[in-house]
Amino acid sequence: MAEKKKEAKQQVIVIGHKNPDTDSICSAIAYAALKNKIDNEREYKAGRAGDVNLETAFVLNRFGFKVPELVDTAAPEVSDMEIRKIKGISRSTSMREALKIMREREAKALPITEDGKTLAGIISLGDIAIANMDGMEDGALAKAGTPVRNLVESIDGTLYAGDMDEIINRGRGVIGAASPDAIEEYVEEGDIVMVANRYESQFAAIEAGAGCLIVCLGAKPADSIVKLAKEHGCTLIGTPLNTYKAATRSIQSMPVGAFMTGAEKLVAFTLDTSAEDVSKKMAEVRHTHFPVLSPSGKYRGMISRHSVMNLRKKSLILVDHNEKGQCVSGFDEAEVLEVIDHHRIGDFETMGPVYFRNQPVGCTATIIRSIYHENGVEIEPDIAGILLSAIISDTLCFRSPTCTAVDRAAAEELAAIAGVDIDEYAEKMFEAGEDLEGKTAGDIIFADFKEFEHEGVRFGVGQGSYMSPQNLEKAMQMAGAKIEDARRDADVDMIFFLLTDIRAESSRLVFAGESAAETAAAAFGIEASQGVLLDGVVSRKKQFIPAVLGAIDDL
User: Fold this and answer.
1) Among 66, 304, 314, 507, which one is least packed by beta carbons within 10 Å?
2) Domain span at residue 495?
């Protein structure tokens, strides 16, 4: 009987951009929660494409959410393949039993495990065929270390004397069809002797030193023979089979552990091995079945070449971005189902049509809140809390020029549901985010960082927001000293870092790159220098990026 396959729901990852900010993370969590309520056909899970910053960590902790799982790549991996959950067998399992299990499970290979967890090896149909040939050699059962239990079960036998757990480790297989005198001549110490219902032959074999005596044709050994076998330490088995069938079946009693391909010789994969690497490795070897292991090395299942052909792509919903440079690695090998964003429409392309929603508001969370209402789904207090936090963060508590009346109305509604005072909560949230204790310059610059490409120029823009003038000044000194290192690490032509003073509604600018100063000067009509004040500039999206793009066009 074949194993029943449990149909799992298609999993969809809802994910924001690289170097995620509060809006990116919170919108992903809230939208995944909404989709799970309105779509029973799929399972939606929030993910992240980078580490969360201190502000976001504060928000998640405040409203009782765990940090979403890190998604290193959206490219297909072993976890996206059909992994057969074939249960492992022990190395002592007989070849006959292994073949029976293969038929039941419609499998051509079986994993051999220790305690059902640690992979010891694999036994295949080819291995069993070889074992049957090798089993015809003298002493095959002994060489394989065959348990008596295997022999008894393989020949449908009954044990009259001996120990089921004893291991056969000596002797040849002998058919005792000759006269008792002849049996005494050719039976050697420890041999496995098969005889019919002839008392004299049974007696002669035991006296000759047989290690195991198999009485065939369903004949029950006499009590005196049972007693004699016990006295001589001879294993005594009765079987309903004739001697030919008993001999054939005895070969199949050998343990799979003696013929398996050991784990050290196998090509194994982990759940996060890329499909590309799997295809390359499979092409290099002649194996047809490959074990899948957990990160700790525990057996998880089996894949084959067929698994690669039937690969399932990851399914994504992108929130808070729509540009290739900001997408999780490998997104172009995934199936993008939706895009929910509030930024400019960039260079994003998909293989097929998608649901694309882009609104000119200050925060993606504002759009998510609208979608909740459109679907008639009540916004729970914890979801309201993270959506509110995202709006406060992206609009700098309504100070940013990107903030709209829709954002403000959404925030007020969400604050009422979450039961928080906007001004008091915003101050605590921003203070948590600007804590510089233990941070490096790289931590500061890349905490909220996005990359762009325009007219062949690649540039990156980071932004940090500060309530405290002291923290802003300290951050500017740290970032200014390492901004060129950051440019090299990001591998961009130019890098800009905005240090935004929330209270003063202005930003300081540090930069690096051959044309960075010239670009900044042209963008804002200033004499660009490190730490220059950009009065009234608080929005990267609406004020800084458009100005830089225009300057690149003009230069």
Assistant:
1) 66
2) 441-554
